[in-house]
Design brief:
Elements (H helix, E strand, L loop, with lengths): L1 H12 L16 H5 L9 E3 L6 H6 L4 E5 L2 H12 L1 H8 L6 H8 L8 H14 L27 H11 L2 E5 L2 H8 L5 E4 L22 H16 L3 E7 L2 H6 L4 E8 L10 E9 L2
Helix pairs in contact: 4-7, 4-8, 5-7
The chain binds S-adenosylmethionine.
């Protein structure tokens, strides 16, 4: 019991930053998103967690985080369950081109959970532009980034591990997560792959599966259902007329953002839509 109390104190005192930089990451919109976090709710549920920028900001003691990307979910689970093993392995890694390509070439299916977590954190911190990208086979294919900084932030991994003790971490499609975990008065933050706005929009390449138009339609139906169940729902998506149509009856706020995903400064500026239901 005493250990548990210490951990609660730790999570309130320790600053925790997201442990991975993720395409579509929400750090730049954080102040806008935080404005809409309800004062009272039961569980926090994030079914497309990615880098989990809002989750790590929330410091909520009862959360469900989920994603269809298995490596990502194994990484969060391993950070929660055995952070020392991940840190010790990362301490043996080096930031060099040769080492990067040797780690990138490893076949994930042959690795332990600790190795998967260390590999993902390492590649994320040392690859070009910190962009997680996979090819059609689901293999990480971003090149080496020639970045000087450190790839191991031990203190933040420990803080993240403490905080993740309060999270149920699920590898699932968002529908399975919602169907299994949602109850009245939960707060659900839904940050899906966006509806594409530009011809070259690359937002669906998070996993080997894509998120198509019918998925956007189905997601909006789920969002309506959640509001009917008495949940508070916040979504994000692109500023496209069709998105307003899909979420007719919800509240909208348009946010100007700079996209981190693109290496080309000309395509970095974008707009995000915050969509609110049940509050
Ligand atoms: C926009 S990102 C989330 C960004 C995150 N909120 C952040 O701040 O970094 C979308 C995430 O949805 C996941 N995803 C895509 N399709 C999914 C699905 N059908 N069910 C669950 N997760 C999915 C991707 O793996 C990706 O991590």
């Amino acid at each position: 019991m005493f250990a548990h109390m210490t951990m609660i104190e730790d999570i309130e005192l320790m600053a925790v930053k997201p442990i991975l930089k993720w395409a579509g990451g929400k750090s730049q919109m954080m102040n806008d998103l935080l404005k809409y976090v309800p004062n009272n709710f039961n569980k926090y549920i994030e079914p497309f967690v990615g880098g989990g920028a809002l989750f790590f900001n929330m410091k909520h003691h009862n959360s469900v985080i989920a994603d269809s990307n298995e490596e990502l979910i194994i990484t969060y689970s391993q950070i929660r369950d055995d952070v020392s093993a991940v840190i010790n392995l990362l301490k043996t890694f080096e930031n060099s081109e040769q080492f990067f390509y040797s780690i990138r070439a490893l076949q994930v299916e042959n690795l332990s959970a600790t190795e998967i977590a260390a590999r993902l954190i390492y590649l994320n911190k040392t690859c070009f532009n910190g962009l997680y990208r996979v090819n059609k086979k689901g293999e990480f294919n971003t090149p080496y980034g020639w970045r000087k900084g450190i790839f191991l932030n031990e203190q933040n991994l420990i803080a993240a591990s403490n905080y993740l003790q309060y999270a149920n971490i699920i590898h699932a499609d968002y529908k399975a997560t919602l169907e299994q975990y949602v109850e009245t008065n939960d707060f659900i933050f839904i940050d899906p792959p966006y509806f594409p706005v530009g011809e070259y929009s690359d937002f669906k390449r998070y996993t080997k599966e894509s998120f198509h138009l019918n998925d956007q339609i189905e997601l909006a139906e789920y969002a309506r259902l959640l509001v009917h169940m008495g949940c508070k729902v916040m979504l994000t998506n692109s500023n496209h007329p069709y998105v307003y149509e899909l979420y007719d009856g919800f509240k909208f706020e348009l946010i100007e953002t700079k996209r981190l995903i693109s290496s080309n400064p000309e395509t970095r500026t974008g707009q995000d839509l915050i969509i609110l239901g049940g509050m």
